[in-house]
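re: that chain from earlier
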Amino acid sequence: MSLALKEYIIAYDISNEKRLARVARYLTKESMRIQYSIFYLPSVTKERLQRVAEELSELINKEEDDLRIYTIKTKGYRAGIAVDLAHPFIIT
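^ sequence. v structure.
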């Protein structure tokens, strides 16, 4: 049985420095940083994504912080269609 692996972009805006540091430290272990508050999560299963989302949910203040997980629809460079910004996975 083949597992469906997908790629994701995680972006955040954390209002508290301590929470920001915890989120950044966690994401640095789980993914690759591509900009200050943007991380790339390559080739993961739905189960791993769920675990990452649950861990991040515990690290943020859902009323003050904004954390979004975007699915990358296709691999490679495709300006304008690589990320579906209309349907992000938002932790609320």
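The mean pLDDT is 83.
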